Amino acid sequence: MILIIRNLVCVVVFWLGSSVIVAESSMKRMVQTDSDPKYVRNMNYSENWFRVLRTGIDTAREYLGNYGPLCVYIIGQEQDELKSDRIANKIIDAYCRNRHGDQGESLKGCLKSNGASLIKRAREGSTEAYLSYVDFTDSPLAELIFINPHGFPMPYLYTRGIHEYAHVYQRAFPTTPTWLTEGGAEFLAFYIGDQHKWIDFEKSMKESMRMARSVKKGEASLIDFEDVSKIENERPHLKKYYRHLAYDAGAWAVALLIHRSESRSVKQFAMNFYPMVDKNGWQSAVSKYGGFDSITGFYDEFNSLLKRTEIEQGLLLRSIKP
Ligand SMILES: [Zn+2]
Asked: Could you tell me the distance, in angstroms and rounded to a whole number, from the CA of residue 104 to the centre of ligand 1?
């Protein structure tokens, strides 16, 4: 049996059933809502993965606030759960109708391409987790897509739910550079995940530092990952550092920002920094929030943090408060 969320449920009822608290200037942002996320999944895939992801997502919703509208897709097979076309087509149909409603041509295109591709990847055994942000509709829709989540290690999988939901929250504010977006989500996943004993914060940060420092000297640094689409188009040879710099160095850049802030509090960062981005733009928000004279000052300090000893880096982490 498959739970199908049709377009009207996901898009319209979300809006009707919610009290919209945040009124941003752009109509294409996530808003705070009373509605729960909607889940679409193939019900013959072990419920365990659904429970783990929902727990992670709910933990992040409690921490960051409830934003939407959000549809979560959990598509997986450990044996042959997606073998049946009937089951596969129900998911494709739900996904495409959530995006396009009953609009003939776009719906048809989705069924054949994007929708079908989800099932194809799941059947081929790909393991994926990402936010896909649909803003071609009048009201935006956030989709969290999890394909074969059983492929992620446990209990780390809980933190993937936190990471992806952090992106939903970030979408209530203006876009930030890639390293700040990924680093922010990664940092929060580590920090909140540690509070629930799903991951070890310091150990994860240490591993991220190892990755960040493994980038060949002079080849690339944090600043190169302000806009990953530029890397894709203009400097594809740096793509290999996406993980190292956007995620791992990014998480440390956020740690530095929090360490340099007045409160040194993670919660305060989550609640106060993003509204500052809205007000001042990200560069000015980073400078102001961390007490740097300019964004260059921030990047300089970050580069010297990479060179500090493990003990000094550990002290920085331990200065951070809940
Ligand atoms: Zn991410």
From this structure: 32
